[in-house]
TrEMBL record:
<dbReference type="InterPro" id="IPR042100">
    <property type="entry name" value="Bug_dom1"/>
</dbReference>
<protein>
    <recommendedName>
        <fullName>Tripartite tricarboxylate transporter family receptor</fullName>
    </recommendedName>
</protein>
Amino acid sequence: MQRLNQMYSEALQDADVRQILAQQGMVAAASSPEAFSAFMKAESAKYGQAVKDGNVRID
């Protein structure tokens, strides 16, 4: 997770990346590896539950 956080932080230093994210209505900010890990776990749980609730399947 630390390496993924580092890559994410590096990408956010690129003005083109920030512009593309802004065009999509996203506001991205760098964070600590611990905060990034907590965010990813929460997002995984949230969307995992949506997949279960929606009975989404990969064909």
